[in-house]
């Protein structure tokens, strides 16, 4: 079964085409990445299996434009892997927020689309982008089944004391205001993969997964199950992110509303699209840009990176305490996999809890699966490449047969 997987992030789009025979028997036909959507210049990297990599650099104003580029590349006579879109037998979509409406992956129909749309206010950067992928696929391939796989599903194992907020309980009963968590497919995948690679029994383990990218989240995984996670009711909570503020005193919100005369919609935009690394640096939301700017002496760029590192450290420490220790810390995602300096700056501060850092193992590691600590380190640290698309393809195959 040939499956197209679309993983639309807030400023990026990852895609894969897989020929799935079963969960562990599959062939990757092509994969690619559309980056810097909405910025001055977008980048597309298309990697067809058995052919040369093909790159495009041009403005990509929105996700619709990005998806059109992807579909044209997949059927391109030179760079493509499909003779036509008719070869695609199913499409799997990553959807950020399922709320309590979608505790599991499901086939897409109008009711599901309406449900995802109703949750857009909870994930304003992601659910609308996810819907663009669903609608574009529906328009171009109307007879092809589509499956939605939700970021929130993995975190349904959190206990009540972890997912409830300390506000009047009636708001949970009336509006289901609670912590949901996101990046669930990534946290689930890398924790199982890393445990297998380093010989750790997933069912008897304490793992902290750090998915760091334009959107970032950290999860405490005990015995293979999520027990706490940094993102909350929306993906705005948690660590400092590309354009999202992360944790903030709610008093700041009301203060700014009064001082600036902001509407709720304007506050949402401020916290989700103008804050985080972008807000602190005033330069860029992209970590790579900030690394270059900091190296050139830009103090605010360096401050933004330091704020991200500090927020990650706080979560690692709190989750280690929550689980009574930690066996393995994992770095994944665009930043986690590709920024060895940030991994070093974070992990060298964790010597007190048993992390014996191996800089020789870490230096230059990008997108690899590798142990980054000394062989006798009490706590292991790994860089692990995530593959949310494979998790999505597995569920898509199961539900669309």
Written description of the protein model:
- The protein is α/β, with parallel strands linked by helices and 401 residues long.
- The protein has 15 helices and 14 strands.
- Helix content is 38%, strand content 20%.
- Helix 1 crosses helix 3 and helix 11 packs across helix 13.
- The radius of gyration is 21 Å and the shape is globular.
- The termini are close together.
- The mean pLDDT is 95.
Key terms for this structure?
401 residues; alpha/beta; eight-stranded mixed beta sheet; six-stranded mixed beta sheet; globular
Binned strand content:
15-25%
Give the distance, in angstroms, between the N- and C-terminal Cα atoms. Answer: 9 Å
Main sheet makeup: 8 strands, mixed
Number of helices: 15
Global shape:
globular
Summarize the structure.
The protein has 401 residues and is α/β, with parallel strands linked by helices. 38% of the residues lie in helices and 20% in strands.
Write the layout of secondary structure elements.
Elements lengths: L1 E7 L4 E10 L2 E11 L6 E7 L5 E5 L4 H12 L15 E6 L10 E2 L2 H9 L8 H14 L5 E5 L9 H4 L6 H6 L8 H15 L7 E6 L5 E6 L2 E5 L20 H11 L3 H10 L2 H6 L5 H9 L3 H25 L4 E5 H6 L1 H8 L11 H4 L7 E2 L8 E4 L4 H13 L1
Parallel strand pairs: 1-6, 6-8, 9-12, 12-14
Antiparallel strand pairs: 1-2, 2-3, 3-4, 4-5, 7-8, 9-10, 10-11, 13-14
Helix pairs in contact: 1-3, 10-11, 11-13
């Amino acid at each position: 079964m040939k499956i197209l997987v679309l993983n639309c992030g807030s400023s990026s789009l990852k895609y894969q085409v897989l020929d799935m025979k079963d969960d562990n028997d599959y062939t990757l036909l092509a994969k690619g990445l559309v980056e810097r959507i909405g910025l001055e210049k977008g980048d597309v990297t298309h990697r067809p299996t058995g052919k040369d990599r093909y790159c495009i650099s041009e403005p990509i104003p929105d996700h619709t434009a990005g998806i059109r580029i992807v579909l044209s590349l997949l059927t391109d006579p030179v760079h493509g892997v499909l003779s036509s879109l008719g070869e695609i037998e199913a499409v799997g979509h990553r959807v950020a927020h399922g709320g309590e409406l979608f505790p599991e992956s499901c086939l897409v129909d109008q009711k599901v689309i309406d449900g995802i749309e109703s949750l857009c206010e909870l994930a304003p950067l992601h659910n609308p982008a996810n819907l663009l992928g669903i609608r574009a696929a529906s328009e171009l391939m109307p007879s092809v089944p589509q499956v939605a796989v939700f970021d929130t599903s993995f975190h349904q194992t959190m206990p009540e004391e972890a997912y409830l907020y300390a506000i009047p309980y009636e708001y949970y009963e009336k509006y289901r205001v609670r912590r949901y968590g996101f990046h669930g497919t990534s946290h689930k995948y890398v924790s199982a993969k890393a445990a297998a690679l380093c010989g750790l029994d997933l069912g008897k383990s304490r793992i902290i997964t750090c998915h760091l990218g334009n959107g970032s989240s950290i999860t405490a995984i005990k015995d293979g199950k999520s027990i706490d996670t940094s993102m909350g009711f929306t993906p705005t909570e948690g660590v400092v992110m590309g354009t999202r503020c992360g944790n903030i005193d709610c008093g700041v919100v009301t203060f700014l509303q009064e001082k600036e005369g902001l509407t709720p919609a304007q506050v949402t935009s401020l916290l989700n699209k103008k804050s985080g690394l972008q807000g602190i640096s005033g330069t860029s939301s992209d970590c790579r840009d900030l690394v270059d700017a900091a190296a050139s002496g830009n103090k605010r760029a360096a401050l933004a990176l330091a704020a991200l590192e500090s927020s990650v450290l706080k979560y690692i420490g709190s989750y280690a305490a929550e689980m009574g220790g930690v066996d393995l810390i994992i770095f994944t995602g665009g930043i986690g996999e590709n920024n060895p300096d940030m991994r070093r700056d974070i992990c060298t501060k964790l010597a007190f809890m048993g992390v014996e850092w191996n800089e020789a193992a870490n230096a230059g590691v990008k997108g690899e699966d590798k142990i980054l600590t000394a062989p006798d380190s009490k706590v292991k640290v790994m860089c692990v490449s995530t593959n949310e698309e494979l998790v999505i393809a597995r569920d898509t195959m199961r539900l669309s047969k």
